[in-house]
Write a structure and sequence with these properties.
By secondary structure, the chain is α/β, with parallel strands linked by helices. The protein contains eight helices and nine strands. The protein has helices spanning 53-60, 79-93, 106-112, 126-129, 135-145, 162-175, 193-201, 213-217; strands spanning 2-12, 22-28, 49-52, 67-71, 96-101, 118-123, 149-156, 179-183, 207-209. The chain has a nine-stranded mixed sheet. It binds iron/sulfur cluster.
Length: 220
């Protein structure tokens, strides 16, 4: 089996609960969503690598990071490859497996969840993405993710509404997972982060406000 991989690199995680930790990143080609704020180049081009499981293993084993992030785009579009790769090689990697996902492909998650240690699940708010909502899929996704350590990341701007806050906090409460609030960059002049934070906090206490730290540090 082969998968199209945009890039493989080692860096410092800039988002979420593991912000500040070193990871090796495997960025897959393709995404099933189309968020207005997307800042990731996940399109296939002439530099795209088409790797078999053993070729990916040879590349990632050379990095000493203790955490391996599958990211994208949407890595679960390649769930069959991820399952095959981890089934063969996870025991030899000695790395925690971290999945960065938009939280919509719950059937695909079910295929790999037994092999994943940490799930970083985005909830994509319509007010931020300019797209439709995916809350029903997000709930099914969280149900499938409950075997791994999971947190919810919410990218927001000043347009976030009370219904979105309500749904996120209900889901986080139900599945007992932390929420990481991440302001959309560049910062919107009308945005009062503390006010938004307190709206979440009034409904759910395990909530953190963490911006994209790699952008301040000027690292990938
Ligand atoms: S889900 Fe992520 S990668 Fe896909 S379009 Fe949205 S921000 Fe970009």
């Amino acid at each position: 089996m082969q998968a199209p991989i945009k890039e493989i690199f080692e860096s410092i995680q800039g988002e979420g609960i593991l912000a500040g930790y070193k990871q090796v990143f495997v960025r897959f080609v393709g995404c099933n969503l189309n968020c207005a704020f997307c800042d990731t180049d996940f399109k296939e081009d002439e530099k795209t690598l088409h790797l078999k499981e053993e070729e990916l293993f040879d590349k990632v084993r050379k990095f000493d990071s203790e955490s391996l992030s599958f990211t994208g785009g949407e890595p679960l579009l390649h769930h069959q490859f991820i399952k095959s790769f981890l089934t063969k090689y996870k025991k030899f990697l000695n790395k925690e497996i971290y999945l960065e996902t938009n939280g919509t492909l719950y059937k695909e998650l079910e295929e790999v969840i037994d092999l994943v240690d940490v799930v970083a699940m985005d909830v994509k708010l319509p007010t931020a993405t300019g797209d439709i909502e995916h809350f029903e899929d997000n709930e099914k996704f969280l149900n499938a993710a409950s075997k791994a350590a999971t947190f919810m990341k919410v990218v927001f701007d000043s347009k976030i509404d009370d219904d979105e806050i309500e749904i996120c906090t209900i889901l986080a409460n139900k599945y007992n997972i932390p929420i990481v609030l991440q302001p959309k960059m560049p910062l919107d002049n009308n945005l009062n982060c503390l006010e938004i934070y307190n709206k979440f906090y009034s409904k759910f206490k395990d909530v953190r406000l963490i911006p994209q730290t790699h952008k301040f540090l000027n690292i990938q």
